[in-house]
Write a structure and sequence with these properties.
By secondary structure, the chain is mainly beta. 9% of the residues lie in helices and 60% in strands. The chain contains 1 helix and 8 strands, in the order αββββββββ.
Length: 120
Amino acid sequence: MADIYGKLLADIMYKDSCTISRQMETTDDIGADVYDIVAVYSNVPCKLGQTGQSSMNGLETDRAFSLKDHLRLSLSAEYDVKANDIITIQHKGQTFVMRADTPFKYMTHQEITLIRNGEA
């Protein structure tokens, strides 16, 4: 039953797409162990939504105000997303690059709070 609802969610709601990357141990050209950002999943159907308004903390630096965005990403429960993964989302002509919080999994899908700190 969960598979049927999951398929319906994918067909009806998931109009965005994302790439999920994480830092993984690899070997460089000379054989040294290094950490690199590696795409784990590409072209994943998803839905991006807001959980609230973007906020400014009111602290002005020499350059700009600090911003903090909180968005929510919904996608199939079959993907193993980990906290601190880097998720690049394509949403209606916009590109968002954000970090994942711990996913909350349901039988049919999972929801992930995304966090982005930036400047205005």
